[in-house]
Amino acid sequence: MTAKTLLTTVAALALTATAAMADGETIGFSQIGSESGWRAAETTLTRNQAEERGYQLQFSDAQQKQENQIAAIRSFIAQGVDAILLAPVVATGWDSVLAEAKEAEIPVVLLDRQVDSSDDMYLTAVGSNLVHEGEVAGQWLVDNVGDEECRIVELQGTTGSSPAIDRKTGFENAIKDHANLEIVRSQTGDFTRAQGKEVMESFLQAENGGQDICALYAHNDDMAVGAIQAIKEAGLKPGEDILIVSIDGVPDIFQAMAAGEANATVELTPNMAGPAFDALEAYWADGTEPEKFIQTESKLYTQADDPAGEYEARKGLGY
Ligand code: AHR
Known about the structure:
The chain is of the alpha/beta class. It has helices at about 5-20, 35-50, 65-80, 95-105, 130-145, 160-175, 195-205, 220-235, 250-260, 275-285, 305-315, and strands at about 25-30, 55-60, 85, 110, 125, 150-155, 180-190, 215-220, 245-250, 265-270, 295, 300.
């Protein structure tokens, strides 16, 4: 091949690649909002994955409102997108809009939360076993409290969301045969740091300035981080006077663990988009139907698991 032919071939390949990028599938992503560090990381990773794969990502932030998500999905359907990613804020109320997407033959992939609609209304769901996460958190407490009386306060996630429902169930499963462990107060903190702090302040006030609380179980790390602040302001030592166990594995909780102010977290990977896009690509290629549930790993980290190193490893990842 002459130099001229080689250059022409390279130029032609470059043009084809550009055309492929420009023709990349359009994906609508209805995200819940930005209530937690974990969610921010999921958004960042989804954007990165979409860019790497040459997709056009239409991103819609629902600001925690289901009606905004439903409107976004209808708009994606009207635009004729090739697929829809949906992180559903709550579990109920999706039947009609999912039926509309199905009617338009647009595959929907659920990210990180479940819905109570029939599973033939969506292509697949990528997420963790949310009940198991709660069980792991509860088992950590069982193993670390021993026979002592332990009054637990619980910060729940968004009311009606599948992680709030399932993480509660899992935790209760783990402690149910241990009469010395009791959830004495339980309220939603809506998965946010600000509400985690506010609700923890009310728990501390109601429980003898916190003297009567042995442990906090928070459905996510951000609420735990807010609660840690409240505990410190009340003059107590989080991680010692009040044990702290939560879920997500965000950098800030590893920092708190490194400082001895939190005890354990169950990691939830924010990379839901990777498996979702793999499933969509196989489906587009030859109609391969994925499993209805693609399960991500859940891993327990404690103060013994090099939290400072885990913080360093995660701090630049978009949390
Ligand atoms: O659905 C996953 C949960 O939603 C995460 O644990 C929490 O941080 C988020 O907001």
